Amino acid sequence: MIKLGVNIDHVATLRQARKEIFPSVVKAAALCEKAGANSITAHLREDRRHIQDKDIYDLRQSLKTKLNLEMAVNEEIINIALDVKPDYVCLVPEKRMELTTEGGLDAAGQKEKLAKAVAKLKRAGIIVSMFIDPDIAQTDACKEIQADCVELHTGRYARCFKEYGADSKEFKEELERIRSASAKAVENGLILNAGHGLDYDNIKPICSIAKMNEFNIGFAIIAESVFSGLESAVKKIKDLMKI
Ligand code: PXP
Fold first, then answer.
1. Contact, 218 vs 175, CB < 8 A?
2. Is 33 in the pocket of ligand 1 (CB under 6 A)?
3. Of 54, 96, 153, 167, which has the most beta carbons under 10 Å away?
């Protein structure tokens, strides 16, 4: 069974829209866990547009499953990670103006910098994942810098599904690209995760990838929760992930 990490950033997006103290990310995370989430992901962005520092500390205290901290390779945030000690961190690229994380990390192009960050985080007992495009060279770079996991970026997969459909050449090619990068990641001894843009409509085909450990899904679940409630939204996607 593929595990589900629920990204709760957009509960904080709603809260920050009014600079309120609700809706609570701790309460949201607890409901996700109750509904079967295997981990909770939160992205502490440099601009603090949704998740705040206190959220990370509060989640660390309250979670019964695992905390996955998404973060840029930035000294301030690395120091917070070393203090909080989440179970996992996922290193992502960050651009100030982007609506959401746009591309994967260029692991191959910045091996030295990333290797230092990976070593520092691993020394603190944190499992380190790299958010990369489904690309063989990037997957090899993750092994070289001794990351523990990869999270393959499924943004293009989601876009091809939406724009061209599941039977299109574009979608099938992207699924194959993910399949090849996944096989390489497993061959390289890396734990295989994937995420970004996954939703209730596009989740099925990617569930067929061998050795997939976990999907990280945020926006679609939080959006669905507006209509059906958070527990039901989590259960619904977990049901679709059964293969
Ligand atoms: N994984 C990573 C690395 C991300 O940056 C995001 C978006 O915050 C997600 C997964 C979840 O993407 P979505 O919200 O589109 O499900």
1. no
2. no
3. 153
- Choosing from 33, 196, 214, 224, the catalytic residue is 196
3-class DSSP assignment, residue 149 = strand
Nearest to 121 by CA among 69, 85, 150, 94: 85
Q: Which tens digits make up the pLDDT trace of 33-78?
A: 999 999 999 999 999 999 999 999 999 999 999 999 999 999 999 9
Question: Concatenated DSSP letters for 172-185?
Answer: HHHHHHHHHHHHHH
104 CB less than 6 Å from ligand 1?
Answer: no
Amino acid symbol at 137:
A
For the chain, give the percent of residues with pLDDT over 70: 98
Residue 50 known to be catalytic? no
pTM above 0.85, yes or no: yes
Alpha carbons 122 and 115: distance in angstroms, whole number: 10
Separation CA 30–CA 23 (nearest Å): 13
* pLDDT at 96 exceeding the cut of 80: no
Condensed to tens digits (0 to 9), the pLDDT of residues 153-182 reads 999 999 999 999 999 999 999 999 999 999
Active-site annotation holder among 43, 94, 153, 214: 43
